[in-house]
Structure formats: C-alpha cells, structure tokens
Amino acid sequence: MMLASVVSDLKGRLSQTVYLLPLLNGLAHYEELDLRFGRERVMGGLCHIGVSLSEHGEVLHDNSSQVFTFGARDSAQRGSCELLHEDLLRANFNAKLSSDIIQDVWEKYMMLTAYAATTCLMQSSIGIIVAARVAVRFCLKRSRSAARSQSTTSAVRAPNFAITLSICLPSQGQQSQHRCFGIC
What we know:
The chain is of the alpha+beta class. It has helices at residues 2-10, 28-37, 78-88, 101-122, 126-129, 133-150, 160-168, 176-181; strands at residues 44-53, 59-71, 94-97.
C-alpha cells in the first residue's frame, strides 16, 4: 500500500534522466516500479542493517552490520552506479557495488524468510535457536528452493552468506514480524 502511494506521488515528477534505487526487502516492488517507470530506470539495492524501533519510536541499532549494496539491473545504469559507488566510498559504512544485484537481493530474501520462519516457528529469539542450527539450515534450504523456482537468474547460489549471518546475529534477535506483532 505504501509503495502504491509513493509511486503515485513520484509519477510525473521525475525527469527522464533520474534513476530509482529502491531499498525495500523482497523483489515484488521491482515489477511495479518497472511497469510504472521502466526497467531501465530502476536500479537494484538492499541494506544489511539490524534495527528495531523502541517504544518511543527511536531507531535502535541491534548489531554493527551496516552494508549498503546496489547495482545495475540494466546495462545503461552501470556508469551511474560506478559514480555513486565512488561517492559512497567516502561515507561511514560499507558500500558494495554488486555485479549481480538480483542475486544479492535473492540471497537477502532467503536469509530473511529463513530468519522469520525460524524465529516464528520456534517462538523465540535467534540466540536460543542457534543451538539448533539444523532448523536454520533447513529453512534456508527451503527458501533457496523457492528462490530457484522463481528466479530468472541462471542459478541461485547456496546461501553461505545467510548461514553465516544467521549464526552471527545478536542472541536476542527476532525477525521484524515476530518482534512487531508477537505472532506469526
């Protein structure tokens, strides 16, 4: 619903030389943005940050992860991505220019879905679940199967990053649906 509102607000306000760089979780938004603005204008991006909101609405950083990954989804975007990367290298976080951004988006999607499934299924924080890594690996394999069945990339690699991240998450971590709603 929020995406539709943003798309509506942006439609007609952007010059033809502007690129969009969405940083939403998942992949569904790309289809709508591509339809409205053209695939050649929609770059790919994601962030790896562990944050939550306090009861007062303050953003709390739950870990030290600060990775901003982006890349071209269309060959015409490559030059702009390289210029953006040069600028971002001066920032105080890890900026990664991806050579295969859709692969990276799928990997994050697999990690988040396995994280959500594991913490919701076990009704616990990841720290308690880490001792039962078999459950995390099972959920990651199922997420990878789902990604492979839907992905247009040649192959979805094994989720090594997701496995490593799931093992290194803060011990009281919970995926946002579990944390925000307390239900799954």
